Amino acid sequence: MPAVPKVSQSAVIAVAIFLAAHLALLIGLTTPEKFVFDEVHYVPAARQMLAPVMSQPMLNPMHPPLAKELIATSIAAFGDNALGWRYPGTLFGALAIVAIYLCGLALFAAQGPAIAAALIAGFNQMLYVQARIAMLDIFALGFGLLAIAAYMHGFRRERPHALFALAGSLFGLAAACKWSGLFPLGACVAILALVRLMRGWRALFADARPDDWYRPDLWPDFRAVHVALCFAVLPALTYLAAFVPLYGVSPADLIEAQRRIFADNTTTAIAGHTYMSSWPSWPLLARPVWFLFDKIAEDRISAIVFLGNPLVAWPALLALIVVLRDVIVVRRWDAFLIAAFYFGCWLAWALLPRTLGFIYYYLPAATIASLALVYVLRREGLPRWLLWAYVGLSAIGFAAMLPISAAFIGTSMQNFNRLMLFQSWI
């Protein structure tokens, strides 16, 4: 396996990506200056945390508090206004793009493909839209992708202990924003369990290759106690730390908070929301969510539609087929990790008993899918320019969808109707 590019060079590029993404996400952030979609739930909950004495009942107890605490911190710093509500989301949106870059370095061991993956993730529209609204998902995404990056960097090391411990701690923070942050942690544990199962069976590949996803000598000193510490103890500690400012260290209060979250998130919801959709439809972009639709002039509207870039989302499905093929046929470790985290983040929703779902739940899997596209476009035999031509194509798709992704731009009804390609999008 080629060595990962120098740390100093990678750090400079990561900072540059973060600054560019952060500045791009800040443009027009305060439009509109009113609540958008579920901000009506999370901003009041954040405001409540700023009161000298916490009022009762607690608002929005069905989700962990960390993301709301971060929004509250921003309100305290920038004021109770649109900038205060939304600013931290732009930070975590930029961090999520940096995390994809770091994942690309781990998988592809080259700067070009890693940068391309970050650009494609940013041009997929989903991340852009979610990073500019005061909801919880972008915080869980940022922490979760950083955790995945740490795990990917540790996967091929003889001693992955430190990186796996970092990954576990970050997964705990992701879960402290929203319980769906546990899904990629579950993928990590499943990978570890599969590796240990094959080792227990004394499984060997007759034609073993250096890039196999499984080798009997993988992590020789990473024992069960290390697994428990990295992927149970550390996540639990960082997760529970987010509750301490609200609940103190009372075990009874902490347990009751978890019981309430569990009850609210595992109860079958009543179907009927205008924009609800089921998990099989999300990769197809079958049903978007209209976060905002305001008439601002005679033939001018301001819109925010959580939809995704069709020029990224749909080709990604073809790329994932190739990735799965390489997992099965040639057993490539990079394909294996991409598939594990993509399907772990998406298919976990199929296990929940809730009937109420939205396409923005697909955000982590859709963002990871950028790695699948780069994996395929840099295959041996393909011209090197093809990857960058596709990055340019995804940028064109992003620009075309931007008028319905950013409220500050505005668009005509004619253009809005032109972009709504299917009846299910309306």
Mean pLDDT over the residues: 93
Shape: globular
Number of strands: 2
What characterizes the major β-sheet? 2 strands, antiparallel
Give helix % range.
Answer: 55-70%
Element string (H = helix, E = strand): HHHHHHHHHHHHEEHHHHH
Adjacency order of strands in the biggest sheet: 1-2
Indicate the low-confidence ranges by residue numbers.
Answer: none
Number of H/I helices: 17
Describe the oligomeric state of these chains in a short phrase. Answer: single chain
Strand composition percent: under 5%
Gyration radius, in Å: 21 Å
Q: Kindly, what is the distance between the CA atoms of the first and last residues, rounded to a whole number of angstroms?
A: 48 Å
Specify the structural class. mainly alpha
What does this structure look like?
- The chain is mainly α.
- Helices cover 60% and strands 4% of the residues.
- It has 17 helices and two strands.
- α1 packs antiparallel against α4, α4 runs parallel beside α15 and α13 packs across α14.
- The longest helix has 27 residues.
- The radius of gyration is 21 Å and the shape is globular.
- The termini are far apart.
